[in-house]
Structures are given as structure tokens and as C-alpha cells.
Amino acid sequence: MKLDYALYQNPKLITVFGGSGFVGRYIVETLTKRGYRVRIAVRCPQKAYYMLQIGEVGQTQMLKTDVRNYASVANALSGADGAVFLPGGLAQTNKPNFQNIQVDGARNVSELTIKAGIPLIYMSTLITDKNASFSYARAKALSEQIVRNTHPQAIIMRSSVIFGPEDCFFNVLANFSRFMPIMPLFGGGQSKLQPVYVGDIAKFVVHALEGHVILGKSYDLGGPKIFTFQNALEEILKVIHRKKRTVPLPLAAGLFIGGFFGTLGKFPLFPTLITANQIRFLQRDNIVSQEARDNGYTLEGVGIIPKSMTAILPSYLWRFRPQGQFSHNLSI
């Protein structure tokens, strides 16, 4: 890893809550390359020791933290110069403590960061609605409100669907296609997505910590192109060289399937392929707002050129091809 050692003359310490997750590991890596020391606050450090390979020796540290516990959060923020809060994503909505982690975590982190006088970057989603029919959107809406009221200078990142080698969206759909004779388009498949690369989100965090974004604002983070869910699914099938018929499926049928797999996923031997919350999530448009574009509260607005989904997907979805990385494309 090439480093600019001039950056190490006065290294700042950033606490990243949830730093061992999909988005977190990219943020941690990007911060270490910029010379920051990073404290990775996680529930189970013993499951995240792979994170200590990132950066120089001693540049990262692991700390067991329960964001629902005020004292635990205070300990994680001791001596920190900034904080990034990455509560569980859509894939974690099936877990019983999801709501508490989102809401109580947001309250504790925002209260303690404002008390310490340090910047806070909070990870949210483009779909927030306190009246939504699914818990993810309701929890995010309430958490955003808590963060904004408690820490007025906090920067809120609202992302569309995130893609990258370890994502829980495109990988899941590609894996799903291996076993399904058809690919269902839940609710018709015409909802809109604006997939954003995980590395671009990490760049945004660095921009925010280094003062290149406006404090106290919410930023909509999306990629360069808008897809319908059907378009995105067809792009996945193209990349993995599989011929599958896409069939519109009524929402009720989708919720039944999501409920079945969500229940099955609660047992250790079965992975959670999809949940009812995720089905409901796919019914909403998930794109950057016109207001954010007009005001420059986007990746492009802070000088980051977002990477295209079509350019990145082949670099990691190839493993779902029938004959592996070097198979020929027979699906198109």
C-alpha cells in the first residue's frame, strides 16, 4: 500500500461504528490510506480480526461496542476526532434487535459526539418514511430525525442500493438465479434504482471529514445511471451469462416468498435469501432527488465522479457464471 507519510505528522483518530461490515471495511481502508488512525467499534471483535490487516501496524484498533449502551459508546469515542455511524443495513432487518440498534444507537452516538464537539457522519438511505409499511424505512426516518435534532452539524449520507464485491443485493440476486427457473419481478419490476459504488461512499466520508462538504446537510448518494429493477436484473443475468425469463409477480406473492425465506433464515443452517422487508423496499423508487441535484448535495456536487455499475459488476459477479470466470456469454 503506497502511503504519503507526510499525512502521519498529526494523525487523527476516527471511530467507525459498524466498521467491519460491507460499507465499513471500505471506509476504514480509505481512511487508513489517508493517514488516519481508525478505531473499529463492533459488537463481536473476534469475528472481525481480519480488519486488523488494513493499514500499517497499529493504525487500526478493534473495540467491542454496544451502540445501545451509552457508556459503551462513550468509551468508543474517547479521544476521537470524528465518528462515522454505520447502523445495520437492509439485510439486517430480520434480526430482533434491529430497531434498537438503529434508534438507540443514533441517539447515543449523536448525543456523545455533540458533547465531545466532534463531527458525525451518519449512514442512512434514500428511502426514509415514518409512515412506511416496512420497518427499515420507519427506523431510518426516526433515526435521521434524532441525529438532526441532537447534532445539527451532522452530515447524513443517504445512499441508493450499494454495489461492490461483498454486497447483499447483486450477489444475492445472482446467486438466486442459479436455482430459480425464472426470475420474479416483484410488484412488476418498474421501481427505479440508482446503484452507487461502495468505494465512492468511502471517498465521500473522507471528503466530509476533511471539510469538503457542508456541515448539517443531507447528501443523496447515487451512481451515474438510473435503472428499473427489471433493467438491473437483466444486467446481472447478462454479466453472469445466464438465460432466465423474468416474470412480473404480484406484491402479495412476493411478500409470501419473502416471509418464507425470512423465517427460514432465522435458523443457522439456512441463509436468508430475501425477506418481506426487502420486497417492500423494492416497491419504492430509490434515486437521488431533484432537490439534491439542484443544490449540489450529491457525489458529483462534492467533486466525486461515481463509478458505473456496468463497469464494476463483472469484476466480482463472474463467480456466478455456469463455467466460471472464463465462460463464454451464451445468454445474449
TrEMBL record:
Coiled coil (residue ranges): none
Group of enzyme by EC: oxidoreductase
InterPro entries documented for this protein: ComplexI_NDUFA9_subunit (IPR051207), Epimerase_deHydtase (IPR001509), NAD(P)-bd_dom_sf (IPR036291)
Molecular function, one GO term: oxidoreductase activity
EC numbers, comma separated: 1.6.99.3
Species this protein is from: Bartonella clarridgeiae (strain CCUG 45776 / CIP 104772 / 73)
Domain NAD-dependent epimerase/dehydratase: 14-211
CDD domains documented for this protein: NDUFA9_like_SDR_a
Presence of the UniProt keyword RNA-binding in the record: no
Keywords, alphabetical: Oxidoreductase, Ubiquinone
Record's keyword annotation contains Lipid biosynthesis: no
Protein name, as recorded: Putative NADH-ubiquinone oxidoreductase
Higher taxonomy: Bacteria, Pseudomonadati, Pseudomonadota, Alphaproteobacteria, Hyphomicrobiales
